Amino acid sequence: MSALPADRYAGRPRQDSGRSEPAAGPRPVTRLDPSDLGVPGARLGSRATLVQISTAFCAPCRAARAVLGRVAEQADGVVHLDVDVTGHEDVAERLGVTSTPTILVLDADGGLVARRTGVPRLADVRALLDTIPQRGSAPRPPTGATPS
Question: Where is the composition biased (Basic and acidic residues) (predicted)?
Answer without folding.
Answer: 9-19
